[in-house]
Amino acid sequence: MALGSFGMAQSVKGTRDLLGNEMKWFQRIEDTARRIFHRHGYEEIRTPILEEIDVFKRSVGESSDIVNKEMYDFVDKGGRHVVMRPENTAGVVRAMIQHKLLATSDPRLLYYIGPQFRYERMQAGRYRQFWQIGAESFGVATPESEAESLVMLFDFLNELGLKHLKLSINSVGTPESRPAFQAAFRAFFEARQEAFCGDCHRRIAQNPLRVLDCKVPGCQTALEGHPRITDHLDEASRAHHARLKVLLEALGVPYEENPRLVRGLDYYTRTAFEVLSADLGAQSALLGGGRYDGLVSHLDGPPTPAFGWAIGLDRLASLMQQLHGDAPAPRPALLIPLGEAAALEAMALARKWWAEGCAVQVDTRGQGLKKALQTANRLGFARALILGDGEREQGVVAVKDLAAGTQETWPLDQVAQRLSTV
Ligand code: AMP
User: Is the C-beta atom of 120 inside 6 A of ligand 1?
Assistant: First the structure.
């Protein structure tokens, strides 16, 4: 039966095709990320989209929304319960352990770029297939390693021309220091418990830290004057936090402290952070990250300190479009041969220019000059290079600047150096 009898096929709900300007921004962002991250010594890793379900149950956690409600999981034909990854840190850690890359205490710096899948409720800017860029640093527990990663992140965001950024930081302490904070916080909660929502009542029993980032306005008001985790840190965590602040100040990375910023899981330790963009409106969080010293051993790897972050590429691309408009990628030049003999010569010339790194396309439709120029204008070419019999005899091309409407003549042997290279 023809597909047409069901109507035209559409992309699956929550997924979309990347094309046009959005695709160009994705490319620009990915190229910038790779260039900056390589300078800092980070290497790319690509892990499979499919992972065994345990990888996420044990890392992201069974009580999280991601694992509870949002996973694309299924049993495959061999009876394995697998998941299309909802995030990439767990897969990277699984790979590091599996390949014994953490067997020595040497630092490992890795980044990833790839699609993630979450069965989310549909809303603006949230997709079921979305992309993340993330960086993970393994093996170093110092505040210096965090400053290094944050400087790389800000170099990347600044290179994209993003301004009005705010780095919020907090320390969530360690599993050892947390009970002291939790006791103080529970006492605070109990004194005003009727002001908190039902979810917070559940959280205070299971995971008190999570009450701090409840989105319900009434809970945020009830939290006024709450005990701060940073006032209940062990000595080493306090020194760590103070040192990170000194480093950020000295390196010119402006930050502010947000005592309500938490990462809810036990294996998160010390630094938690978020980057907000004033240009994003309601969804101002551009990315988040932090230190997760407990995760590698939690997944049965050797105890290994780690720090990382992940940024949503979809949100970043829409921010770039909003701030800078269409992606700057004009088509450079269309070579228009007039007649069969010129067509053959044009292909041979273009091949020579491509080999020299020039960006040029050949009009292969064999249409007349007028139509070819209309095509070049419609498709947004910057220049048309016209090769007719007269030009061939003289060894030149006529070069029309399509924006300005001006025309000049270039000798063939000068074309390569005058075209833009890619
Ligand atoms: P998370 O892994 O939940 O900490 O998210 C990190 C970043 O990924 C967020 O700040 C968003 O920019 C992006 N992100 C998370 N979920 C989605 C989604 N469903 N659609 C688009 N972007 C997302």
Answer: yes
